[in-house]
Amino acid sequence: MHAQLRPGRGELAHLDRVSVDRSFHGILRSLDAIGAAGAALALIRERLPEQERETAVFDAAVRFLEALDEDAPAEEALLSLQVRVLTMLGFAPTLDRCVGCGKVPSPGKAASFDAPRGGIVCRACGGGRLVLSARALRRWMMLQSTTELPKEPWPELERQQIHDALDQLDAYHATVSVRERTAAASGRWESRTS
Ligand SMILES: [Zn+2]
Predict the structure, then answer these.
(1) For the chain, how long is the longest CA-to-CA vector?
(2) From ligand 1's centre to the CA of 150, what distance in Å?
(3) In this predicted model, what pLDDT tens digit does every residue of 150-173 receive, in sequence order?
């Protein structure tokens, strides 16, 4: 879809023209796919700074819709997109070593994960609330470095662990951005009143 926008007043823009280059009818065949598409668009709306061009994120979103259209497993595709968007925006968690001391986890061992600290944390550094199995860690690191979307479902435990860790990251980033917005708003307020 192409949309032509003209800057308007404040955060609103005039929509000049919209043309549909490609539609994704296949998504409408599955409720899971419809849900995943909605969640992805909400995620991108939340994450992206307003009025900034993020071509890479837009391309990733289009590839994601194409994958859903072609019957990719919906939840796996959505989780992969979430990982991709975090990586592209510079919020990829550290998964190959402890964020505290840099210790590399033993191969084949699970690690604990802590979103506020930005990745995996070894026991000596306090650990984290969530566990990522060795397979989940490997899967996530692979997702950070590829634009491919999954064609097959993942084992349940892997999917659940990646889902929970992404949720924790999401909740953490949401609090941080609310705090930043509040700080920015109170800064504006102070400069108005001083
Ligand atoms: Zn450590």
Answers:
(1) 59
(2) 32
(3) 999 999 999 999 999 999 998 888
